[in-house]
Amino acid sequence: MRKFNFCAGPAALPEAVLLQAQQELLDWGGRGCSVMEVSHRSPEFVEVAERAEQDLRDLLSIPHSYRVLFLQGGATGQFSAVPWNLFGAGDGREKRVADYIHTGQWADKAIREARRYGQVNVVASSEDRNFTYAPAADSWQQSKDAAYFHYTPNETIGGVEFDYVPEVSCPLVADMSSNILSQPIPVEKFGMIYAGAQKNIGPSGIAVAIVRDDLLDRAMDGIPRSLSWKVAADAGSMDNTPPTFAWYLSGLVFQWLKEQGGVEAMAKLAGRKSALLYDFIDRSGFYSSPVEKGSRSRMNVPFVLADERLDKEFLQQAEEMGLLNLKGHRSVGGMRASLYNAVPLQAVEALVAFMADFEQRHG
Length: 363
Description:
EC number: 2.6.1.52
Keywords: Amino-acid biosynthesis, Aminotransferase, Cytoplasm, Pyridoxal phosphate, Pyridoxine biosynthesis, Serine biosynthesis, Transferase
Radius of gyration: 21 Å
InterPro entries: Aminotrans_V_dom, Aminotrans_V_PyrdxlP_BS, Pser_aminoTfrase, PyrdxlP-dep_Trfase, PyrdxlP-dep_Trfase_major, PyrdxlP-dep_Trfase_small
Enzyme class: transferase
Largest sheet: 7 strands, mixed
Oligomer: single chain
Family: Belongs to the class-V pyridoxal-phosphate-dependent aminotransferase family. SerC subfamily.
Order of helices and strands: EHHEHEHEEEEEEEHHHEEHEEH
Number of helices: 9
């Protein structure tokens, strides 16, 4: 029996996708072998790769002036790749300053890595209130000549999400690992978007990068080949053997998303799921959300119990009810429910019903 999985990542995958992969595991497309056992350069797998790219382009309305890359190393690999690819001499001179917004642990990791290769200007930080809000644009202290501007639209751990796209004069870079494909994106406002797959795209082991063409020639001298967007773009993301099974599964997720109505349908569903849970928490005197209302994530909902001594019992009973992976991140504590695209509305309804019952028994 399938249970409701609220894991922040690797996260729930659509059941229909898992069933299709199961059916095709030993005999993919009538070939008598698994998709994991064929050459990544075979016509059959190239077709899988090309369809996955086209479906992602369709879902996000990606302009032709952008490359879509399927890469190894996850989003963490792009923490290094972003400065390596953008601190170079694209306009005839190097720019070794980048603007970053600091909104939590993932932004912090990106900042720390970028500082290995150049200067980072933290234009704004929400550390003053324990990373419980997204800084307003009028508080930023931007550089005059930054190579790029980086932000994390959704912080998985802290449950903070921006409800706007920053307006900046340099290329805008976003780590969308936690909210990609959950709503329409104005891709044309970005220079580069990247996302680890294991939340809304597919299994862990692959990352997606969407890069504007004019940014492919700005890399620093000596960039590692495996981090070069241009190398990946020129080779169709196959400069080396890619994670073919993760790519194949991601493609199945893209097809499933199209069948559900695309990112517009996912945005409506995300709104319903998150509103149901937040509204219950706000009405409760037993649970509370640490995140300010204007910055609450639709994807990751942290919450705490009035008495933390009940945390262990809450988690144990939740698991007995088939509600899995609700423990908050070790750096934050409490609980966290991740409501990615593959988490159905019924899962949130079951969670709220359990929370209400637990409150009645312990409040």
